[in-house]
Design goal:
heterodimer, A: about 220 residues, alpha/beta, Rossmann fold, four-stranded antiparallel beta sheet, 7 helices, B: about 300 residues, alpha+beta, about 5% strand
Chain lengths: ~220, ~300
């Protein structure tokens, strides 16, 4: 599904922030991406979501060489990927409902066709009462849940989440993790970037990708 | 218990993806309104001049003038009557009106004063000939009819017509150049505003990309946003211009009897824009709104191509 082969990245003429990164994400797999703050987790996620091009090495995504992709192809691939940003990236002038429905709206699907689906998901993440609220009046946890719901609404084949439980209390964090696990069981490959060891310990059957000093180490999942 | 889904009326949706209200947006509306107002005034003024010049040209072009210079010993009245008779029967002539002695005196009164006796001066006499429609350019029969009248000479007004044509064309060309300059200025301002709006909406564009929006979809959102701004600005500016012309027509009609009103009427006619003039204002407003929308779409599309 996603393969990195000797990928390196530098910004401008600076030192490489990622070096010789080689790994792959299998379909329907579950992995945590971890490492200290500033180690390059977010950068690695940005490479995975095709918003950065590597300075060397090769990335293959859904069987396509990322280097040769034109913009239309990138758009088509992004529709198969759900992304949860650390800073949520909700659009402040749209309601919670509209933010969550955004991926379906930009596909130019009729609103009537997805309304019930969006409402159901919003209720599931506990935002049933906040559908018409604008993001600036949502709490950090509510924004986080809205951002997660937006990533899940298209039932992506690959979910990339950057610190998805960073702004929620432990019980909600457990509930959100359960949501990701269920999504994984229904066939989605999940990559969660976090440095919350407690969260990772709750799901020991996950592979761990550890970034440190620009390099990546892979620790396979514990046997059940 | 499951909460029922909000009714259609309660659920807010389909809000524009580009935020509709912004300081830059309001400034652009004001700019488009002013430029549209000026563009409509220029176009309306040019239309008024074109209308008036058509009137002058039609009046002057329909007539020719015969000048009779009496020679010593001529009975002027007899010569004038003979020429008028000869001309009236010529093919293509609708009507020949010899200016009588008193009419000629009245014609010269503004320059030579009242109480003039033309009998004492060798002043030429005039016969105004109205041509039938379609015969204005074929004056050969008329010239033939005058061949036997050595005191008569024909003035077909071509020199005046050429000057009127040149003046009217110059005014219309000047207005067209002004109009083009305004459109260029407005397009430039729209370009700046679009780039500004894009810079302000960079995060929105990024999010739209990540959730799978195609460039064409994003560009359409900006186009719709700027089309709405353009329509608002053009409606305000065009409405103002239409109101200006309507008020000017009213004032001109009210002022028509004064000397200044007469001068203005000579240049601009009744200063009343015909329905075609108002239709032109409407067309300009729509064109400006559409131009604003398409221009912003093109700029957004180009900028999006440079983003990953």
């Amino acid at each position: 599904m996603l393969e990195f082969d000797n990928v390196g990245l530098r910004y401008g003429l600076g030192a490489e922030v990622l070096r010789d990164v080689t790994f792959s994400i299998a379909p329907q797999s579950f992995q945590f991406l971890t490492g200290p703050s500033g180690a390059g987790k977010t950068t690695l996620l940005r490479l995975m979501m095709l918003s950065l091009r590597p300075t060397r090495g090769a990335i293959r995504i859904f069987g396509e060489d990322a280097a040769g992709l034109d913009k239309d192809k990138i758009t088509a691939l992004r529709r198969r990927i759900g992304v949860v940003f650390q800073d949520f990236r909700l659009l402040d002038h749209l309601t919670t409902y509209e933010n969550v429905a955004l991926p379906l709206r930009v596909m130019e699907r009729a609103e009537r066709g997805y309304r019930d689906e969006v409402i159901e998901l919003l209720r599931w993440v506990g935002l049933g009462e906040r559908m018409n609220a604008l993001p600036p009046v949502l709490s950090g946890g509510e924004k986080q849940r809205a951002a997660i719901a937006r990533a899940l609404i298209v039932r992506p084949e690959l979910l990339l989440a950057d610190e998805p439980t960073g702004n929620v209390d432990p019980s909600l964090a457990r509930r959100l993790l359960r949501l990701f696990v269920e999504l994984h069981k229904s066939g989605t490959a999940v990559v969660i970037a976090t440095h919350d060891i407690g969260l990772m310990d709750q799901f020991g059957a996950a592979r761990r990708l550890v970034v440190g000093e620009g390099r990546l180490q892979t620790f396979e999942a514990e046997s059940p | 218990m499951t909460e029922p889904a909000p009714s259609d009326a309660r659920l807010k949706r389909d809000l524009p993806l580009v935020p509709p209200a912004s300081i830059a947006g309001r400034a652009l509306i004001a700019l488009i309104a002013i430029m549209t107002f000026l563009a409509c005034l220029t176009a309306g003024g040019a239309i008024l001049v074109a209308q008036a010049s058509q009137g002058w040209r039609a009046d002057v072009a329909r007539d020719v003038t015969i000048q009779i210079k009496p020679r010593p010993g001529d009975d002027v009245e007899a010569v004038v009557a003979a020429v008028a008779q000869a001309v009236a029967g010529a093919p293509g002539v609708a009507d020949a009106h010899p200016y009588s002695k008193s009419e000629s005196e009245a014609l010269l009164a503004p320059w030579l004063g009242e109480g003039l006796d033309l009998g004492e001066l060798p002043i030429p006499r005039l016969i105004v000939v109205h041509m039938q429609p379609g015969h204005r350019d074929d004056l050969a029969p008329l010239r033939a009819a005058l061949a036997s009248q050595p005191a008569a000479s024909l003035d077909d007004h071509r020199r005046w017509l050429a000057r009127l044509d040149a003046m009217a064309d110059a005014i219309v060309l000047f207005a067209a150049a002004l109009f083009a300059l305004m459109i260029v200025a407005m397009a430039t301002a729209t370009g700046f505003a679009t780039r500004g709006a894009m810079a302000g909406a960079r995060e929105i564009i990024e999010v739209l990309h990540f959730v799978g929006a195609a460039d064409s979809y994003i560009a359409r959102q900006f186009q719709g946003h700027f089309l709405r701004l353009g329509l608002k600005g053009a409606a305000i500016g065009g409405g103002g211009a239409a109101l200006f012309f309507a008020l000017a027509a009213l004032l001109s009609a009210w002022n028509a009897r004064s000397a200044a009103g007469g001068e203005i009427a000579a240049l601009f006619g009744a200063f009343a824009l015909r329905p075609v003039g108002y239709a032109a204002i409407l067309a300009i407003c729509l064109a400006i709104a559409v131009l604003t929308g398409f221009l912003s779409r093109a700029i957004v599309f180009r900028q999006l191509r440079s983003l990953l």
